[in-house]
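Colleagues,

Please find the record for the two-part complex below.
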Amino acid sequence: MDHSTSLLRLIFLALGAALVLLIVRSAFRLPRGIDTPTTSLFDDATAGSSCTRFAPWGCRQADRIKQEQKPKPEPPSHENDVPLHPLDPLTVTEINRARELLRAHPPFASSPSSMFVHSLALDEPDKPVVLSWRKGADPLPPRRAVAVVRFRGEAFVLAIDLASGAVTPLPAPASGYPTMTMDEQVSLCYAPFSDPAFNATVQRHGVRMSDVACLPISLGWYGPTEENRRLIKIQCFSAEGTANFYMRPIEGLTVLLDMDTREVIRISDRGGGIPIPPAANTDYRYARHMQEDVGGDQTTSRSEAGFQKVRAPSMEPGPSSGPGVELVDGHTVRWGGWEFHLKADARAGMVVSRARVQDPGTGAHREVLYKGMASELFVPYMDPTEAWYFKTYMDAGEYGFGLQAMPLVPLNDCPRHARYLDGVFVAADGRPYVREKMICVFERYAGEVAWRHSESPITGMDIRESRPKVTLVARMVASVANYDYIMDWEFQMDGLVRIKVGLSGILMVKGTAYSHLREARENEDTHGTLLSENVIGVIHDHYVTFRLDMDVDGADNNSFVRVEMARQETAPGESPRRSYLKATRHVARTEKDAQVRLKLYDPAEFHVVNPTKKTRVGNPVGYKLVPAGTAASLLDPEDPPQKRGAFTNNQIWVTPYNKSEEWAGGLFVYQSKGEDTLATWSERDRPIENKDLVLWYTLGFHHIPCQEDFPIMPTVSSSFDLKPVNFFESNPILKQRPTKEDDLPICSATAV
Amino acid sequence: MDHSTSLLRLIFLALGAALVLLIVRSAFRLPRGIDTPTTSLFDDATAGSSCTRFAPWGCRQADRIKQEQKPKPEPPSHENDVPLHPLDPLTVTEINRARELLRAHPPFASSPSSMFVHSLALDEPDKPVVLSWRKGADPLPPRRAVAVVRFRGEAFVLAIDLASGAVTPLPAPASGYPTMTMDEQVSLCYAPFSDPAFNATVQRHGVRMSDVACLPISLGWYGPTEENRRLIKIQCFSAEGTANFYMRPIEGLTVLLDMDTREVIRISDRGGGIPIPPAANTDYRYARHMQEDVGGDQTTSRSEAGFQKVRAPSMEPGPSSGPGVELVDGHTVRWGGWEFHLKADARAGMVVSRARVQDPGTGAHREVLYKGMASELFVPYMDPTEAWYFKTYMDAGEYGFGLQAMPLVPLNDCPRHARYLDGVFVAADGRPYVREKMICVFERYAGEVAWRHSESPITGMDIRESRPKVTLVARMVASVANYDYIMDWEFQMDGLVRIKVGLSGILMVKGTAYSHLREARENEDTHGTLLSENVIGVIHDHYVTFRLDMDVDGADNNSFVRVEMARQETAPGESPRRSYLKATRHVARTEKDAQVRLKLYDPAEFHVVNPTKKTRVGNPVGYKLVPAGTAASLLDPEDPPQKRGAFTNNQIWVTPYNKSEEWAGGLFVYQSKGEDTLATWSERDRPIENKDLVLWYTLGFHHIPCQEDFPIMPTVSSSFDLKPVNFFESNPILKQRPTKEDDLPICSATAV
């Protein structure tokens, strides 16, 4: 413990000097097998410059790779935060309290430093408690936490009563392991460097040790040989001459490690003859890019190419300009008739709770969504060879989608007037730390039209009505190694919620001996596209499965209705028409009834209705899930990764509410066999009519890389909507006022 | 002729007084069977207040229904426009010249007033001529026009050489009729009012004649009884107490008219017992809405409901703030590396030509798209009963998609800094008129991220790179009676073009005796949803078929490649994986090879490549078509409307370039039988490999109305992309500079 204490002292020194370095990897160094890793309260303030043998390139690289340094304002302290809402995440104080309780809990008390906290988060009160709580009138319900802890090779799930101090064991999953801690994700990268065979191999590839960068890669589950110990694979890259080491794989080199003992189990090196792809044209940092002639051969000056000329406008002048977004008590967002609770979560990333929308007729807030979040991701790569077959990531359950969310970049990730929320997370030693600016919230005007109507000369009525579309966006970005997932929840004034996933960042590429396509054999399966000399972009899929705990006008009385559209032929003589499209409503009785594989030629609408609530003319009030473009997994259902990712077998599932069914791939996803997924739960085929329902939707992407994905990958997005269907008596947009010149801010341009 | 002359005089009087009324229907009145209708040069300036027996309600209503009046600036005169680019549309002067030539052309010269101009537009020069033309260096190629004229019941297609004055007949389609003129669309609505039987029927429905508003409805083609004469159906509504007469149908009343003789052929009245739905809650005008207590029962004040609180921000301060959009010579748009020609078209609405994108490596502009536009729309309603079966609109070929485009509403349809383009169209008498502010062009920042990457603590590199997404939008909105189609072409700096269709406006509804669902019989097929008392929203589809004349890096050497993704099982022992997704390229040899029906579980990418141009590492340069959410027609292929709309049988078609194949439903769509559609052309199965290709894509929507579509329908959008695929050597976004605080305008808020 004295080790971490001295580092804490260092941190405060650094704070005092206002010399703030963003996460410097050496501070995360985990001495082999002893004590917990050190993390700081403020992620922006971790300091320390000592190099060790386990950080062979980090320190040297740090000088080159850090962004332009300037004094930063002191990051916000959350030490005095208190919870104000039943769903507020654990505070710094509460985390520290929970940590103390865990460390005092037998058997951990015997050796608290052997206890690793993989997860420590609010144990949300039961739904009825939350629903009946009234701000100002009621005290907060008792605060409880739930922890996932590993101690001497065993995983524990524990309920913690923060008031009474009671720590109660809960059943733990039979297979799989908890989400990796951030600390071990960081430190395991360095573990191979202590292995002489690894060093020799790297040198055989002609890479200096000081240029090696490694990544921890979850290995899925491929049979009994990989059971009964926590394993990880490490693959490495050359960071020589570029920040974009992802483009320079040491192809074929895979190190199998025991995560607990840090023992190198096996080094596989299949990359003989495959050169490290060149660094030229790979660096993406703007500052670096403008210094060097990256293209090499162009003669036209870059400023003439027009790309720099375009200025990103600000969208609006700032929060002082109008009511905009109200952020109440730190987590409650009010805007445009909407009210919801918003928080960071280490595993899900961002959680939207109790989303309620105001009825324009009555003014009352009506329940729509009790809780919505990304539950799991599944990212299978499509290369069955030794160094690639196992890449079938589950980014939420294996890596922690929230843990990977870095601070957003103001003006570029979010517009000028955005408001930011921080996350408070827990390090492996149980200590809290702050992830600054993890979520942003902003009012969005994209130049779109919410509704408009003109009368044409046909009717001659002089009507030109138009209402601009203004929405509210809550955004988080998770940077899971190379990929950046931009997660947006967008709320419209007409009650629609659009959930959007953007994929950005950098491709995971494969080294190849080829520098031109003509070198490949005819019909050779390269599993991807040759993007540049010696670089193949490997085909892969992304699936993001959302858990949407719908409470349409109340929790307990929801049903799932498929409104199927099909061709109806007319009877002879009935009509000059032979056919028309007929809609038929099917209420799903049980879970299997509600499993949907989308088909263009077998279309349907997907409603969650409250059959006990009807509109004036008798329609059940509802919300519908509206898919947009998506992709479906084509893997063999019996393929091990697809069994683990079986929650992607359908695009839509509906389950009865069950507090324990939050994670589509299971609570312990790491090395799981797929025994505890949404697909297995749903096999029970429980009744789902007129109940508290949870709707699941999977958004998919196929990605065949192309040269435009080199050396960076532009954002590709897809989305789906939750849209009111007979929820309102008539359209809420009727209340929206058209914009007039007087409404707009007065702006003057600055020099560009 | 004296009639129209006196009206023209009136118009200029009105202009002088700066008392400008937007289109007043009575000015479009067409006295039965004589002379041409009168239209003005400036659509905003049409004045006149005389009421006639053919405009029974327009004049009275006009007082109530016109927008807030204030003096407007004089609309732009286009009288002195000259063409500056080979693709520039006909100017006012050229239209007048063409008109004189047509009126002097035998046989029309015998009775020029019997000549009706249905279309008069630029006959674009042949592609090689346009491609080789250099601004400044070359004179404009000879200006030619093509006209579609009806004269004494016969349709003529004529080529007009504006320099020599030669008028040359071209072959006219064997079946179908040309697009209706705007003048007849307007005037035919009033035709039934001269029929005593019609008036009696309306009175039987309890509607005052002064409250009747009627619409001209194209009737498709349903067999030989409807051949050999131009027919139209008229249906009517009560405008009593609302501007939103669409919500008050006189259900079941259909008048069949001869379009040429204006004779009422048949009145069908099946609406016995169906009341006119009430006017309450239907008016959508903001001014009216705020005056009346529309909801009736709410007690909360509306200002508390939060809907008015939201201000639409301006997005950016204005064109002075930065380079923004360059609009050169009136029609050439330059922005962010893009250059393209943009124009209004009476039939297609908006046409994008010669879209070229700058290569960030060489600075050269490279060809992408020679011409892109909405070619046809198909909107079948799904009710086979007498008053509804025929509603299977083709909005471009029947009504003229550009003719229906009304002036955009500044600040609401387009942001403050938008630039506007006018359209110059031709009235039935051949005279030009100006459709002001028909297209807007603006730079868009929607708060999105073009590319970003952060390194997480896993690698410890202090990297936070992010580039906001700024795009350019060209927008037009066609108001085809009740529906408003928002058409966006959005250009990204990374070479992607997104084509987006938004549906807004008002539903076409059906009257019903029911005021509550419980009154319907069990499983009764109402063909839609009960939206309000006596109002059913009828199920319908929308299909928009785009013609995309791709010229990827040149016109003559393009091929269409399907990159098919399918499951590949591994051999036993090959891999711990059982399966992966394998991509296989298929070059389409002939048209049928390129007909695509999309399937989620049979996915593919759709590339147009130039096989003669390769990237450095050997990939053929290309653009891919990326569908997003869409819908497919389920009608029986042998159903008459589906035969006419057979161009929707596939989502994707590829044809060899053929100048005459521009309109997917045929040149003469009105009452056509489907003998001359994209589907029939493509039956010839012509070779399409390594040729000049045209790509066709159909975007579809199924619409089951819900109460949120009453009394107005919020915008629903879908889109597809044209996206570079191995077109660039690497990603153009590398050149984009991140935004800094200094880049942004200085704004101060005004009172809200």
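Residues 78 and 217 of chain A are 33 Å apart (CA to CA).

Comments are welcome before we finalize the supplementary table.
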